[in-house]
Design brief:
By secondary structure, the protein is α/β, with parallel strands linked by helices. Helix content is about 40%, strand content about 20%. It contains 13 helices and twelve strands. A six-stranded antiparallel beta sheet has the order 4-3-6-1-2-5, covered by helices on one side. The chain has a six-stranded parallel beta sheet with strand order 10-9-8-7-11-12, with helices on both faces. Helix 9 links the parallel strand 7 and strand 8 (about 295-305). Helix 1 packs antiparallel against helix 4 (about 50-65). The longest helix has about 30 residues, at about 115-145. The structure holds flavin-adenine dinucleotide and protoporphyrin IX containing FE (HEM).
């Protein structure tokens, strides 16, 4: 435990650091990658360029510091991040590297205002926070490795099938090269894929939600090709779409993540997705159908139109079941979509629509999609009085703030 004086110093300096938050973390990454370029094998370069990772890390360090005398209170957040760290392969020996460069950055940005006393207090606080992460992650590594079908680090999987699901989304069915059992997972969880791309200096790791129900002899991921905007094309998704074929090997880490369907509950569940955000929802829907045949499940999916609408037939095939309801929203339907009545509602998912169609006492709401979609759904559900404990969401990138 820290002494009271140290705790007081930490708490009184949090607002100052928060003010310089992103400057400090940006500087921190510059310093750290300068001294440890090998870490660029783990970090997502695009997230760095867009400042998304800096924002997430800064926010967490300061939140943790505010609770330095009661870290238990932020355990759920620690666990969420620890899942991602475990999936990426972050190890205890990485923590002192981050700590050293964070302190260097604080000193650099604050200058003389960062006295030895302040730096010493933050060193102690960082070690305490790091210990909390390391111990949570140790349990996760242990579980990932020792569970049935489990493994540590990255394991070779063969692309057994590659299936085009829409103009932009393709599924990959992955089977282990060693032909042995694979770990189970909870619907909603993701895997990490590590790629070595010819001509690229560093490896690239990305997360993909598992889009089929657990209990199969393969993992399925469904990947959107990130291309065609003013920004550079996405590194990994384009490589998977354009360069990876059936029979190729991908390096995969064991399933992780705390965006999960609670299959012990029997109350209704509403799954809302925009675009490729449907992947974890597919796993949840198919799991409810397979193992909870009486549970009411509503699947709401929003896409521009049928050209980019993936896995629609798979959902449709399940919609005939009494306990399954499905709604398709297109905001830019084609003439053909209109003629063939390929969608249920034109436009976006609104609060009024949610109120009339899916608002149910005791239901749990899960959502995932582009950030504007997630913000709108989150706001609507809150305005409709849905309790926070029944709202669950996943970011397909570093976690952000839906209330901003
Ligand atoms: C838990 C989780 C689950 C996920 N599940 C899925 C899933 O099921 N399916 C799926 O398709 N994706 C999923 N993702 C997203 C996935 O991990 C990747 O982020 C996505 O495939 C894009 O990776 P990329 O390498 O193609 O793009 P990156 O190279 O990482 O680029 C990401 C974005 O940044 C832009 N960008 C790149 N460089 C710059 C720059 N210099 N300046 C500005 N912008 C830039 C690119 O245009 C692109 O849009 C998930 C993410 C998480 C965290
Ligand atoms: C106490 C120290 C740490 C804190 C508070 C912290 C916090 C975070 C947060 C908030 C995220 C974003 C989670 C998300 O994506 O939703 C994250 C992701 C990540 N962290 Fe940490 N982290 C710490 C230590 C480390 C260490 C030691 C390493 C390895 C050197 C590391 C590497 C990463 C990587 C690679 C990601 C994913 C980033 C990306 O791909 O964009 N972290 N961390």
């Amino acid at each position: 435990m820290l002494d009271q004086k140290t705790i007081d110093i930490i708490k009184s300096t949090v607002p100052v650091l928060e003010k310089h938050g992103e400057t400090i973390t940006t500087r921190f990454y510059q310093l750290m990658f300068g001294n440890h370029p090998e870490l660029l094998n783990i970090f997502n370069h695009a997230n760095q360029k867009q400042g998304r990772q800096q924002k997430a890390l800064a926010g967490t360090v300061y939140a943790a510091a505010m609770y330095i005398d009661n870290l238990e209170a932020i355990l759920p957040v620690v666990k969420q991040i620890a899942h991602k760290h475990r999936s990426l392969g972050i190890k205890p020996e990485h923590y002192p590297i981050v700590g050293k460069h964070l302190l260097m950055a604080i000193k650099d940005v604050l200058g003389d205002a960062a006295t030895d006393e302040i730096i010493d207090a933050w060193a102690q606080a960082y070690n305490l926070i790091a210990d909390a992460f390391i111990s949570v992650e140790a349990e996760m590594y242990d579980e990932a490795t020792h569970q049935q079908g489990g493994w540590s680090g990255f394991r070779n999987f063969i692309v057994d099938r590659k299936v085009i699901e829409s103009d932009v989304i393709t599924s990959f069915y992955l089977k282990p090269e060693d032909n042995r059992e694979i770990a189970g997972f909870i619907p909603g969880q993701y895997i990490s894929i590590k790629l070595e791309i010819e001509g690229e200096k560093f490896t690239h790791i990305r997360q993909y939600s598992l889009s089929d129900a657990p209990g199969k002899d393969y993992y399925r991921i469904s990947v959107k090709k990130e291309a065609g905007t003013a920004n550079p094309d996405g590194m990994v998704s384009n490589y998977l779409h354009d360069k990876v074929s059936e029979g190729d090997i991908l390096r995969v880490s064991a399933p992780a993540g705390d965006f999960i369907l609670d299959t012990k509950k029997t109350t209704p569940v509403v799954l809302l997705s925009g675009g490729v955000g449907l992947t974890p929802m597919m796993s949840m829907l198919k799991t409810v159908v397979e193992v909870q045949p009486g549970r009411q499940v509503t699947f709401v999916h929003a896409a521009a139109n049928s050209n980019v609408h993936a896995l629609g037939d798979e959902v449709k095939a399940l919609s005939d079941l009494d306990h399954v309801n499905s709604f398709v929203f297109y905001d830019a339907p084609t003439e053909e979509d209109r003629l063939n009545k390929r969608f249920d509602v034109e436009g976006y998912v609104t609060r009024e629509w949610l109120k009339e169609n899916v608002l149910m006492e005791e239901a749990d709401f899960y959502f995932c999609g582009p950030v504007p979609f997630m913000k709108a759904i989150n706001r609507s559900l809150k305005e409709l009085g849905v309790k926070e404990s029944r709202i669950h969401f996943e970011f397909f990138g570093p976690m952000g703030n839906l209330e901003e």
